[in-house]
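Re: Re: ligand-bound prediction request (bumping)

Still looking for help on this. To restate: I need the protein modeled with fe (ii) ion bound, output as structure tokens. Inputs repeated here so nobody has to scroll up.
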Amino acid sequence: MLSIKNPLFIKRTLCSSLHLQPIRRVSIKTTIISDKDAEKSNDVEFITHPLFPHPVFDQKDCESIEVTHREPRTIGDKIAHNGILFFRSSFDLVTGYKKPHTPEQLAHGFKGTRYEMTAGKWLTRCIFLESVAGVPGMVAAFLRHLHSIRLLKRDKAWIETLLDEAYNERMHLLTFMKIGKPSWFTRFIIYVGQGVFCNIFFLVYLMNPRYCHRFVGYLEEEAVETYTHMIHDLDANKFPELNKLNVPEIAIQYWPKLTKESTMRDLILRIRADESKHREVNHTLANLDQKSDRNPFALQVETDKPQPENGLKVTRPEGWERSDIVLSNEK
Ligand SMILES: [Fe+2]
Ligand SMILES: [Fe+2]
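Reply:
Sorry for the wait, this slipped through. Here it is.
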């Protein structure tokens, strides 16, 4: 009951007498968009052919993606890895997420604590992660593009893979935006966060691109781990409201093999596979000579040795060593 001593009563009275809207509650939870509402905001007519068509991933290959870690070997690697651990633990603390370290923690899911996950919290996490992940590829491609046209030099095919990565991350984000509606506070954090992260990444890439690719490699290791946890929770049917959802049309048009009958699990499996590819690409790019080596994922040569490729058939999750890659025309 509202009484004059009740703070809610005072707030409402003040707001109505001053003709103000009550201040909206600070929340980071994302609201799931029901299939009925999704139809209302159906903008399928605006979906164009993908600028970078997605390679075909088999369901079996997507299922077999594993959480991996490349041990830091240089001081730069250690700084990159510790940087990611710092950002991740700060983000986890603020958003109420805890990485499960034991099978019990994975099964129990920190029930009853502030670390218990909900469907809304998962979506917030995915949306924030993807909004950050879309920055490095675009910034790196932008800088390499300027470098190429300023110095009148070939780029050796790095730009296209970096742009493809940025495009792929934005497709992840656009897909999640069709599933959940983030709160104003989440949008605000994303807005400010991008301003800070984008500028820092730009400056550091100018000075040390190798360090930046290693940093992204470690970021992607964390992304694979997060999506693996999410797939576990979907399998355990912890959030039936997510398992019931239809896969958005934008995702069906982008990922080969996704159909109207596909589930959220099928979608997250493919997003995790994409992250595993970014992990491999960025750890590999960090192993190469930043100025003179070609990008072996885009510009391939004929050889009998296994070499990097864009699919999931031949992979090195910790990155290809420079000595394993045929970088010139010798066989
Ligand atoms: Fe992503
Ligand atoms: Fe990624």
